[in-house]
Amino acid sequence: MNPVDAKQNELGELDVPVDDTELASLHATLVRRAQAEDLLDVAYRTVDAPVGPLLLAATPAGLVRVAFEVQDHDQVLAELATRVSPRVLHAPAVLDPVARELDEYFAGRRRTFDVPVDLRLLRGFRHTVVEHLPEIAYGRTASYATVAAATGRPRAVRAVGTACALNPVPIVLPCHRVVRSDGAPGQYAGGAAAKVALLELESRVGE
Amino acid sequence: MDEPFETAVARHGPTVLRVCRAIAGPADADDAWSETFLAALRAWPALDSATNVEAWLVTVAHRKAIDVLRSRARRAAPVAEVPDAGRPLVGVVDGGRDLDLWRAVAALPTKQRHCVALHHLGGLPYDEVAALVGGSTAAARRAGADGIATLRRTYGTSEGVGA
User: Is there a domain that residue B135 lies in?
Assistant: First the structure.
């Protein structure tokens, strides 16, 4: 250890703790100013839901991502930074309208979502498939084959499955309502149990 | 830089705040902190991903803290005589913070204060400190060491924080 390091360590009291409350207030100011100067490209927060914690992320254009815990929230944020913009900030208030609609949905008081959605993460056929999802009514299901037919590509059943699996805004755009032709729920980005839970919620409320 | 900016705020926010407090004084530190991260957010997408983010932020904070002090000096003293613009005003600080330390830091001569802020609080090596404050690396090292020696003598002698 050189004398400089020794000195630094002796003066340990210079490493004064910084108050978390104060940092939180500074952070809130940063978010407000970033928004005012159009520098907040991706705002995010997490919410607790009956299907586990959900990551919500929005661009100024709308909700761009909903992710289940099994999808690894840190990984999802890293992907958003790469694919949308690295100007990513934890900005809970920006997502308040989405959080409120999800609360209402899980409480059985909401059947469709009104928040704007930003599908910039999708291209081509996947974009088309995800756009068709809200046509499947609350409490109902459709097979992958039916959705393929609805998009005008009846033979693209497998591609519909992929598009549903890669739906960037699950729950809000209801890929959980797309099931296998034999009636089995099939795969889900949030895990099979989450898909079943959502379908059960809707069939209970929808009666 | 393709990492989420939030990571940098969470990881380096406290360090930047300490540097801002030491250079701008507690009363103006919040402004300097906000200016630092706003400027960093603007520059973030174009920043080389090999950049040492903490060192870069400390450098930005140094510049912003000086800017904030200068604009306060301009507002406070529109007359010709602007006393040492690098000196923070410490009489106007609200209570409840680690005032003893910041008061002791504020009482240091400007160069010592900047060297202590950049090296001891900001973690910059002395050659980079010298590039920011001017003069040689050896002079920066001496100023930092002198500042620390003074702080050891003065800090904690009053109300007992860290005594």
Answer: yes
